[in-house]
Input
Amino acid sequence: MEEKAFDLKTERLGPLPIINHFTGRLGLVDLLESAVPTEDPRCTLSYASRLGVLLRSIITEREPIYRMGEVVSTYAPEGFGLEREEAAKITDDMVGRALDRLFDADRGSLLTEIVISAGERFSLCLKELHNDSTTIKFAGQYARAKGRSIRGKKAPYITYGHSKDRRPDLKQLMFILTSTKDGGVPVQFRCEAGNESDSRTHEETWDALCRITGRCDFLYVADSKLCNEDALEYIDGHGGRLVTVLPRNRSEDGLFRKWIQNHEPAWEKVADRENPQGKGGLRDRWFVALFHMPSIEGWPVIWVLSSLLRLKQAKKRTDRIAKAEEELDDLARRERGPRARRRSRYDVQKEIDEILKKSHVVRYIKVSLDTVPEHTFKQEKRGRPGPDTTYVRKTKLKWKITWSQDEEAIIRPEERRHVPPSHQRQVAQAETGPRGAQAPARNREALLPGEERPCDSSGAPQERGARRGAVLPLLHRPARELTHREGDAKRNGEGGHQGYPSLPGGACQPPAYFRADTESFQPGREAHTAR
Output
């Protein structure tokens, strides 16, 4: 009797087992089922399952969000939570109808429940939250995306605005994201019109975070767009704490830079760590100094000095100076050449100024422009020259460009500036410690004193309609999934977690910070002030 040959079938899993592990711990499927219930008996696949397919596709594939059938067919269907018969029927229309239902659902409550679940099951620390924003550009007209109402809900306004991608020719939306300090887990997301100003978004964002955390005394960290009187007074008036960066165009900045020329701040060391680039390098030391004069509004001003940031800035400054001197040398050589064009002082000086401004070294290089005579001699008459030949001297003026470095300006320290206001308007301590802190107790019912305005912790719909509007909340969930994975790897690098094996090699490095902004937080902006 002949033995029957067996069939070998290979299927691709990729990162789906890990993704399913964390979505299961998060309880995401149950949350989607409660927010987007499937009430139509004709549906062979629930809306939550369809949204789960889209979410896994966004995490696993860096491809456009369409052709779901082809994406699912390249993996084992069980990885997407589907049976083989269901995987064969999945289409873009099915996913699109699920997005319609998600747009009609209460996405604010859904995202709030997801964040609360993540905080409880992953022990997230919500004592310090970082906010930033960026712009998402669109290559198209999107003529109907003007903030119209769709089934009683307002769609966003895709329009022209200040482009952080340096593409002012394209329309855009503003993408606002708030993450935890512990692992950079996204906790609040919102999208606004493309021409919305960053400075007007913080009050609504802070209200949403108060609802999510159940408290208002968390530390709210944002960039210089937060440094405006309305936002500062609003957060401080409701018992909040915040840290922001003093913009360079404020008068307090110029006042300190003049004061430091003849005075030495009382620097206090608040952090001393190993070099993050490896052993043997310069230690990462942070110093702070409370300025004796507050801001115009009365907030205390703390100046921060970083040893590594200072070294990095010095290297960049040296490179910029070298580049500017190289371009000045080329210009001077052209002006001294035999075929130099006759140009006015205004034209030459304008080119010099452009070189200095382009390299940002106006204060470091001093350039002088002078004229020098250049003499040439020519026979007065034709013929072979002899002892009695008469010559005529011709004088031509050429531009002489000389420059020198201002050593005093180069060695002048570059300080980072911070405005850490508190509702007592007192500064207790500046901290730049490592990540991680005890998780605060959360009360879901706690609201702001006298708060009446409802808080929407979800994003507004994107692009032309409801389906694209429902995509944006899904787009920031992959970041949460990734940071959950990294956070678990960090906490369980040596012991492992139940149901999730530990990684080889012992303790893991701190998780990467998910940033949606083209202007992410710089090392010099990580010093914070306690209440």
